[in-house]
Backbone:
């Protein structure tokens, strides 16, 4: 059964890596944002307010991207599995393939779908972890120093 170009043999490994990166980045982002909220107190500045708005809107966007990516990957996986079933059926007629060979492709396709869905969430969490690790006023101060 020939591999498709996007079928990396390491799809489960890529999924595991993304999950680990997300599990490290997400708590960092939560800690940074909770600390900033606590420091802002009852009268948040415009910068703090903007961060809170950004926090909500980026979650909605990341989940929309995630569902779209999973849908698109699931569609591609369904087509690939259908192609494999058709090819396997023909190969079985001439004795070149075993029906179980198609079933061996399912876990890889499932990992591809999950990985596609996790990617936008992981990317956003990693970006936020990097961005929020800079002290609140440091980015502004360094930009002003350059100007």
Residues:
């Amino acid at each position: 059964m020939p591999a498709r170009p996007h079928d990396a043999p390491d799809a489960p490994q890529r999924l595991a890596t993304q999950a680990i990166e997300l599990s490290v980045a997400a708590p960092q982002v939560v800690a940074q944002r909770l600390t900033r909220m606590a420091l802002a107190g009852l009268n948040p500045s415009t910068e703090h307010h903007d961060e809170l708005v950004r926090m909500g809107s980026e979650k909605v966007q990341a989940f929309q991207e995630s569902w779209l990516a999973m849908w698109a990957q699931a569609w591609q996986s369904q087509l690939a599995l259908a192609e494999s079933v058709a090819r396997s059926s023909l190969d079985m007629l001439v004795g070149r393939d075993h029906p179980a060979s198609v079933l061996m492709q399912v876990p890889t396709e499932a990992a591809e779908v999950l990985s596609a869905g996790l990617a936008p969430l992981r990317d956003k969490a990693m970006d936020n972890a990097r961005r929020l690790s800079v002290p609140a006023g440091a980015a502004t101060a360094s930009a002003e120093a350059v100007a």
Summary: Residues 65-133 form one domain. The mean pLDDT is 83. The helical segments are 11-40, 46-93, 100-103, 106-132, 138-146. The chain is about 80% helix and 0% strand.
